[in-house]
Design goal:
With 273 residues, the protein is an alpha/beta fold. It is built from 12 helices and 10 strands. The strands form 2 sheets. Strands 3-2-1-9-10 form a 5-stranded mixed beta sheet. A 5-stranded mixed beta sheet has the order 4-5-6-8-7, with no helix packed on it. It is an enzyme of class 3 (hydrolase).
């Protein structure tokens, strides 16, 4: 049976969008009469409301027996594992996300510090995930690769975290790279050397899958509502990272956004005041 690859970008706790998109993938594969290889490019946890549910869904595997899940590890997944296994060494912004994430496990800060079997099981699953999937034509990875470095010499730090050195490079690469990690708007980006599929599910309500069938590239999307609480937390993170204190205008804008009185563009503008 012919195999079509479906690459799904950063989920970040949006189980609702994941279930919707997987249904569309299954329907598309059935209509084509093909086997689906579903490659997830990482970042399953943090930000959205149901990181626990997302990991459980991935661990359960595909519903159709002929299909296959290939799960890669993202930088947020890596931080999640470190928080559970080491309990130290993370930046403040990562701890803020982690303490929100464990709420989806029915835990608080105190109980999450104890040995929780589900947290440990999920950390073991994520820690064992590969960083790349290479089909000979496309390389699937969370963040990208460092140009000029052979694929077998790529550093883990780059595969999980690289941005501009990769995104700004328009020259040839050993493979066309399919990646997430950097939000690029509501629509994916396709260039000669890469396919970018992180459409910011937590803030846009849009989760994207690239459909790769030989030379043919198309897309499927699950579309829902933004997670407004997750968006506001993201602005809190930016303040922590840049050592800023939010102004009264910015704090009011966050409240207005949470209540649906303003949109994301207005929140971004007012948060800079």
């Amino acid at each position: 049976m012919h195999t079509v690859t479906y690459a799904i970008g950063d989920i970040h706790g949006r189980l609702d969008l994941l279930e919707d998109l997987l249904g569309k993938v299954e329907g598309d594969a059935e209509a084509r009469g093909v086997r689906a290889r579903i490659v997830f490019t990482g970042d399953y946890v943090d930000r959205g409301a149901d990181s626990r549910g997302v990991i459980e869904r991935l661990m359960a595997g595909p519903k159709r027996s002929q299909d296959e899940f290939v799960c890669l590890r993202g930088n947020h997944d890596d931080l999640f594992v470190r928080a559970i296994t080491l309990g130290e060494g993370l930046p403040d912004w990562a701890w803020l996300l982690y303490w929100h994430t464990v709420v989806s496990y029915g835990l608080d800060r105190q109980s999450a510090r104890d040995s929780d079997p589900t947290l440990n099981r999920h950390a073991e699953f994520l820690a064992g995930l590969p960083l790349t999937h290479d089909d000979g034509t496309h390389l699937f990875v969370h963040a990208g690769i460092r140009p000029g470095v052979a694929l077998d010499l790529q550093a883990e730090q780059d595969l999980l975290w690289i941005r501009h050195e990769f995104l700004d490079y328009d020259g040839p690469l050993p493979r066309r790279v399919v990646h997430g990690h950097t939000i690029i708007g509501d629509l994916p980006i396709v260039t000669a050397n890469r396919i970018s599929i992180d459409t910011g599910a937590f803030q846009s309500g849009i989760l994207t899958a690239a459909v790769i069938d030989g030379p043919e590239i198309s897309f499927l999307q699950a579309v829902g509502e933004p997670d407004r609480s997750a968006v506001v937390r993201e602005f809190e993170l930016r303040a922590i990272v840049h050592g800023r204190v939010a102004s009264p205008i910015a704090l009011q804008a966050q409240c207005d956004y949470l209540e649906g009185r303003i949109g994301l563009a207005d929140l971004q503008q007012l948060s800079d005041v």
